């Protein structure tokens, strides 16, 4: 199996790239954001809880996120591997993911990170907010809070995966095709 953590700040293009890469490499794309939005739209108990945190620009608690992720992996037990998009977001989540995969005789092959300057990301998110229907993409102060959350809680994962020799930073600026080509070079080696 090939299990990749696709990483980067909000608006870096993870979802766009995962859509292309999942088909190219025959992997299952698990986007915690998409799963949260589905649950929010359908007003499930998990969705209502997740919405409360997301509306403030805060991260959803680990326990909720981890249990949701495990369920998604279990639904796709015959997969060739997974692209994890939006998970893990904390070192505790990364440790939990490693333990969960180890139970299955699997591991994370690499964290591939899209690196994009913050000001460009703010522009992208505000533009996306005009058409996405995502309230967290329409308010610059909420967007900046998401970056603060990312920088203080999530960016530490770079060190976690770097210590394992599994961190691969990719320039996330350019056309979709250019970025896909850069990502594919790394995916081919993992």
Describe, in short, the structure shown.
Catalyzes the reversible transfer of the terminal phosphate group between ATP and AMP. Plays an important role in cellular energy homeostasis and in adenine nucleotide metabolism. By secondary structure, the protein is of the alpha/beta class.
Describe the structure.
With about 190 residues, this protein is α/β, with parallel strands linked by helices. The chain has a single domain, classed as 3-Layer(aba) Sandwich (Rossmann fold), CATH 3.40.50.300. It has 9 helices and 5 strands; from the N terminus they run βαβαααβαβαααβα. It has helices at about 15-25, 30-40, 45-55, 60-75, 90-105, 120-130, 140-155, 155-165, 175-190; strands spanning about 1-5, 30, 80-85, 110-115, 165-170. The protein has a 5-stranded parallel beta sheet, with helices on both faces. α6 (about 120-130) crosses α7. The chain is globular, with a radius of gyration of 16 Å.
């Amino acid at each position: 199996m090939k299990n990749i953590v696709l990483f980067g700040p909000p608006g870096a293009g993870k979802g766009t790239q995962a859509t292309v890469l999942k088909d190219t490499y025959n992997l299952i794309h698990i986007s915690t954001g998409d799963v949260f939005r589905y649950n929010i739209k359908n007003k499930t108990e998990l969705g209502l809880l997740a919405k409360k945190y997301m509306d403030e620009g805060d991260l959803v608690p680990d326990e909720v996120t981890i249990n949701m992720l495990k369920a998604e992996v279990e639904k796709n037990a015959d997969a060739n591997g997974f692209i994890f998009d939006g998970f893990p977001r904390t070192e505790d989540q990364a440790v939990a993911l490693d333990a969960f995969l180890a139970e299955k005789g699997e591991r994370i092959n690499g964290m591939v990170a899209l690196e994009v300057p913050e000001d460009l990301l703010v522009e992208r998110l505000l533009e996306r907010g005009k058409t996405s229907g995502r309230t967290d993409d329409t308010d610059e102060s909420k967007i900046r809070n998401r970056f603060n959350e990312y920088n203080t809680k999530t960016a530490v994962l770079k060190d976690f995966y770097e210590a394992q020799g599994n961190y691969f930073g990719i320039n996330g600026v350019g056309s979709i095709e250019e970025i896909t080509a850069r990502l594919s070079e790394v995916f081919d080696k993992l």
